[in-house]
Amino acid sequence: MSQSLAGADVCWVIGAGRMGQAFLSGFRKLGRQGESARTVVCDPDPGVRERLLREGNVETVGGVSDLLRLGETAPPSLVFWAVKPSLFLGLATSLRKMEARPLGVSVMAGTPLDLLEEALPDWRWIRTMSNLALTRGEGMTVVAPGARANSDDLSRVSRIFLELGRVMMLPEKDFDVATALAGSGPGLMAMVLESLADAGVRHGLKREDAIFLSAQMLKGTASLILDEGLDPSELRKRVASPAGTTIEGVVALEERGVRGAFIHAISRMVERSKNMSSTISREGSDSRH
């Protein structure tokens, strides 16, 4: 284990998958700006723990029992949860033994605030939803506070995620559609990019050139919309000159019902997200009775 920071806050990261490691990256960036903290990562994979130790400025443990032992002398002020939702209740039951009452931050899909607060009712909770672009500093994170969370909690969590992209406060009722658009959306955009690249290859481009052209185009388009506050329809009108190539492509897409297909895909993902939340809540209720 690395040497702890005397007198500093203590942050636990439970689950060191992509989201857990991205959060850790944001936390480290704040640390380099003077916000020191002793950071402990809990993950059962010894390979992951070894790699994180090599990166430095972090301690690692393999299980919650190890966290509890650490918590006796250095209780956490913040605990970031990035485990599979099915594992949460069992881990939470173990952590009820801990005297500390930290701020819990969840990025677990389909796990509502009422379940988090019922599992560990003395904690303050903030629910977040993000996407894989966090790992490149271009993530989109939505945040909803629980009943006990205060403005300082929201500010602290927002600062961490702002190191990794953009942040939006949303009521929890909107998380299902936010998950479909921002969380799952990169998967849809990957299909769009793949299709564009295939078209480029069909017309003679090397695949790597077609992918690069398409990916940079998507990145630039997003930057124009975000930086100028444009409605997408306005950007489309700017690009589509009379009798030009763009309007020809727009007509072809409308003929194939592409707009409706995307709307239908988002609707399906919203319903799936709602079903996941309902299932997790129901399983959590059953396990407590």
CATH architecture term of the largest domain? 3-Layer(aba) Sandwich
Structural class: alpha/beta
Strand order of the largest sheet: 3-2-1-4-5-6-7-8
The pLDDT mean sits at 91
Fraction in helix: 55-70%
Q: Which oligomeric form is depicted?
A: single chain
CATH topology of the largest domain: Rossmann fold
How far apart are the termini? 39 Å
Overall tally of structural domains: 2
Explain this structure.
This protein has 289 residues and is α/β, with parallel strands linked by helices. It folds into 2 domains: 9-175, NAD(P)-binding Rossmann-like Domain (Rossmann fold, 3-Layer(aba) Sandwich), CATH 3.40.50.720; 184-256, ProC C-terminal domain-like (ProC C-terminal domain-like fold). 56% of the residues lie in helices and 14% in strands. It contains 12 helices and 8 strands. The chain has helices at 18-32, 46-55, 64-73, 85-95, 113-119, 151-162, 175-183, 185-202, 207-228, 232-239, 245-255, 258-287, and strands spanning 9-14, 37-42, 59-61, 78-81, 103-106, 124-129, 139-145, 165-169. The protein has an 8-stranded mixed beta sheet with strand order 3-2-1-4-5-6-7-8, with helices on both faces. β7 (139-145), α6 (151-162) and β8 (165-169) form a beta-alpha-beta unit. α7 (175-183) packs across α12 (258-287) and α8 packs across α9. The protein is elongated, with a radius of gyration of 22 Å. The model is unreliable at 1-7 (pLDDT under 50).
